[in-house]
Amino acid sequence: MSTTTNRKRIESIAYIAVFTALVFVFTMLVNVKWPFGNGGLIHLGNVPLFICAIILGKKAGAIAGAVGMGLFDLISGWVMWAPFTFVIVGLMGFAVGAITEKKRKIYWYAFSLVVALAIKLVGYYIAEWIIYGNAIVPLQSVPGNIIQIGLASVLVLIAIKPLEAAAKRVGIKNV
Question: pTM for the complete prediction?
Fold first, then answer.
């Protein structure tokens, strides 16, 4: 393997590790417990997740989301949620990255975030149905999930173009 290839691989691993840490930290430190229904959190972990997926691509988005938020669940006492979070948030990151890899327009970014919301709503509905054994109870989490992804989407759509420009200036490309 060439030195250039090794360097790019190491850079990719480093970028993914940084975004994974950001997803974890933004989920852990910037959150509010949803006061209705079964609880859950409204957090900002989706902001670095979506930025990672848009700038670095589907593989990086899937890894950063799955590992960052899955680790949060394990460490913060939401252990039974960790496998579900790993899959659901990994799929969210993958979907956002897959949709935006070749379509670098703001409306595609917005569309990808709507797809992420759909994955979150369906995924966590199924997870709660399995955990609680009830098809009605999971509906209580829908408003919190919409608020969480809606807030993250607004922040990402405001910040993404300047962040993309900065990434381009330093030579960061989809991994």
Answer: 0.94
Per-residue pLDDT of the chain (175 residues; tens, 9 = 90+): 678 789 889 999 999 999 999 999 999 998 888 776 665 788 999 999 999 999 999 999 999 999 999 999 999 999 999 999 999 999 999 999 999 999 999 999 999 999 999 999 999 999 999 999 999 999 999 999 999 999 999 999 999 999 999 999 988 877 5
Handedness of CA 46, 52, 53, 54 (dihedral sign): positive
> Who's near 152: CB < 8 A, 6+ residues apart?
44, 46, 47, 49, 50, 113
Cβ–Cβ < 8 Å for 90, 69: no
E strands along 11-165, which residues?
31-33, 41-43
Q: Are 100 and 109 in contact (CB under 8 A)?
A: yes
Residue 162 region by backbone torsions, left for phi larger than 0, else alpha for psi between -120 and 50, else beta:
alpha
DSSP 102-141: S--SHHHHHHHHHHHHHHHHHHHHHHHHHHHS-SSGGGGG
Contact 69, 85 (CB under 8 A): yes
Give me the torsion for CA of 26, 32, 33, 37, rounded to 10°.
Answer: -110
The two structure tokens encoding residue 154: 């607004």
